[in-house]
Design goal:
51% helix, four-stranded mixed sheet, globular, alpha+beta, 189 residues, 7 helices
Length: 189
């Protein structure tokens, strides 16, 4: 089997998958996809081109094209390595999926407002509000990490792997202007 990852270096969704590939010790081929200037393969095989995409080629000639970072990580977790990052308990699995939903529907949109502003137009006046709203969301993470090493206890799950790249994104915005001093658990995490 040959595993090929189509991704973009700074994309937090791609970073999720690269973290999992690293943690699982999986060898893979990397294809850099310039954003909105997709490779011919991407245009041909991916219905709605966006990264990451995992392309799996099997010895029998069959292929699987898998978009969506969380789905890719579930597949990698189920098929490689001894350590698993997907909770086996149904309630914990549902909690992991709630973290995913929160990240995609609440956290990432707020990070985008913080980084770019409304309609991708930065407004210094609104930036104060966007920063305050982002701090409220980071407090949710801080509270979840107060008594445990990870979001769901003492074991890293796909919830942690899904959200950590977005913390990195905040840290790298405008030369690290965001003040994390009120969030020591997030920084430790």
């Amino acid at each position: 089997m040959k595993i090929i990852l189509h991704d973009y270096r700074r994309c937090p969704f791609c970073i999720r998958v690269r973290i999992m590939l690293y943690l699982k010790g999986i060898e893979y081929e990397h294809v850099h996809e310039p954003l909105r200037e997709w490779t011919d393969w991407m245009i041909k095989y991916v219905q709605e081109p966006r990264v990451p995409v995992l392309h799996i080629e099997y010895e029998d000639g069959s292929e699987v094209v898998m978009p969506e970072s969380n789905d890719i990580n579930l597949w990698l977790d189920a098929n490689f390595g001894e350590i698993e990052f997907t909770p086996s308990d149904l309630a914990q699995r549902e909690e992991m999926e709630r973290w995913w939903d929160w990240c995609g529907q609440v956290f990432k949109p707020q990070i985008d407002l913080y980084k770019y502003g409304e309609n991708r137009v930065f407004d210094a006046g609104q930036h104060i509000k966007h920063t305050s709203d982002l701090r409220d969301l980071l407090q949710k993470l801080e509270d979840a990490l107060k008594h445990d090493a990870y979001l769901q206890g003492d074991t890293m799950t796909l919830a942690d792997i899904a959200i950590i790249p977005f913390i990195r994104q905040i840290m790298r915005t405008r030369n690290g202007e965001f003040d994390f001093s009120d969030f020591p658990q997030v920084l430790r995490w």
